[in-house]
Write the structure tokens for this entry.
Amino acid sequence: MRKSIIVAYVILLSFLTVLLYSEIITISQVDNTPLLINQQVKIYVSVTDSNGYPQGNLEKDRFTVYEQGKKRKIVHFARGVNIDTGVNMLLLLDNSGSMYQDASGNDTEDEKKWRLTYAKNAIISLLAQIKNPADRIGFTTFNWKLGQVIKPTNKKVLIEKALMEIERPKGDEGYTEIYEGLNEAIEDFRASGGRKVIILLSDGEVFKRPNNPHYTKRVEIEGAIDAAQKEGISVFTIGLIETKNKSLETIAGNTGGRYFPAQQPGELENLYSLIRNQILNEYLITYEAGMDHEEKRRVKVVFEERGKKQEAERDYYAGTMFGKPQEKLIFWMFAAIPAGLLLLWLLSLLKFKNKKKIPTLDVLTVNGKKTSVKPLTIVDNKKAVTIGGSMDNDLTIKGDEELTLTEAKIEQNNGVFTIASMDEPITVNNKKVTKKVLRSGDLIKVGNTTIVFDEGVAKTVMKKPEKKTKTVKKKDRPKKK
Amino acid sequence: MTLAMRIIVYSLIGIAAGILSWPFTELMIFIKPYFPNLLLYSISTGIVIGLFMGGCFGMSEGIISISRKKLIPGLLMGLCFGAIGGIIGLFSGQAILQFLGTLIFNSNIGFKTIAFPLSKALGWALFGICIGLSEGIRSRSLLKARNGIIGGFIGGIIGGLAFEYLRLLLSLHFVARLAGLILLGLFVGFFYGLIEINLSKASLNLLSGDLKGREYPLTQRLTTIGSSPVTAINLPGYNNIDDIHAEITQAKDGFYLTNSGPKNLTYVNDDPNKGTGKEKGKKLEDGDIIRIGNAQFEFKEKK
């Protein structure tokens, strides 16, 4: 247990010393829009010293770009490209119990002496500095959890109103979860695009609440810094009292921001111009992207100064329509080619032909409904077929109440079929007839029933003179839907 | 062939298109790292899938109208238009996917397991639309193009979603792709056949001869009837029918039958129809019997 504490301490110490006193490189945006057109990706990079001052005169050869671990070619390098770009600034205000003490840590009911009041004044002076209409300011507070978030807006009034409405935490709410609160605010801030900075105002006194239900998994200071770096967010910190705890300096120094002690109000006036300066001194690096299959690609920029390397990483989306390939090409997949061709060939074999060699009567509909009965074949050993509603017909239609006992009779003579009505005229091809020579495809309507006549293709055979007597076979199959 | 049969055949053709395009799609994805850029890769993959989809749907008319003569020209034209549709489709699909994907990627929305597949499905839908549209343009029919857009959109969404979720579920990307492509083809084909029925205001039901029992939906402004394979309603094996014998035009107030030449005779309810040339011809009523040569049709109009 003790050993692990020492190890953690050593790690933290080396972390602070390595990172605190060198340049910080930040990728503030990855723009993948040119990817599909010319295979290029643009990244906006800013380099700041440990005080948050932008390094604006660096040469192209100081930078190296890697994508998915592979070095990529920089095709274009530019400076000062973002003069008019607005900044989204999120004000993150400590609202823990200690903020209601005076600078020396004594409880007081004199509001003017509260640390919170200093913080409010700092915010109001910052709001007054903001001149660029494209800038947006968001606001939230934290103590044992994150307070209500005001999304970045250009209405300063909303922020001022929120400042007025800050509620003093009661009892257990007064804990100070700086790291977790910052991490949550960064996650919340994701949806806001463009350049993002967070301005964290706190007394720097960390009081973690044991078993905090809001933060069951803790990211600690490393996690919060990591999240800020991944999002390209510079965190500017404003310390309201002098404290031995250097966490605010660490956060600012590792994210490209800067620490401001609020006890020296003159310095705070530089905050806004410093933020704007960072944007002004951004580098636009355009590089040639690779053809990696991953949907999420990691781009890394390495900046080298006096033999020391600094790097920043960010992910961007590069999903494709059809995803990742097989690891090893499976050759049985080519069996799909004959399979598909076979299916097409089988489909092309479908003739859907209806060659009827013999004359037929096909009942299409009864009472407007389609029937699925087989057509009645008219074969040559019967003189005539009758159609009607009673059972003694050759073609009996049941269920059609409008049919009389026998409606019509079809006779054939030397291969010529003639239909004749029994009493009332019948309808053939939409015409009322009492007698008609039938041709293939004629539509006979009796009652509510439609019947199609088909002569069949054996017509010529039947016309031969040797077949003199032709009758039609009776078929006692009642036809019904 | 009945309309239901038509849907089945179209769907099966779509399945065949999906099956055929799959191994080549796999091959393209496998050799993706050798492509110099995403643009060339997208275009090439678009061409490959478009060729198979376009080719198969191009042959569908040949398969359905049982005219071998229509198969080859349909196939060739389908290949050309499919390839073009594939290029435009995959490029625009990839563009919208990248745009939406980046938007979702850079946001903190909580439903990413829905949002990412949806963005992919939209990309697929755009691809499907272009494939469906190319078949409509190939057959030079506005209605068919519209059907293609609707069918392609729905097919693309369903195919794309199926691909994405199967991919997440099975983690075997190539199996998911096979399923996705088959579904894309199936639904494009299915909706193509299905929508064609629903959008057609009228149909001709063939009552006689070899092809008896077939229904021809009248989806186009101009439907030609004849013995030549260039006609929309192609009647091989019938007597006394000219190459382009007659045509049915769709006007605002209904359908009109005209003879394509002065010597071509047509009959409506056994009465000769004399309309030729630019005249509107005979207006068809629901239930009319049309005779062309020895082929008889029943005209059915939806009210």
The longest helix of chain B spans residues 68-105. The two ends of chain B are 23 Å apart (CA to CA). The mean pLDDT of chain B is 85.
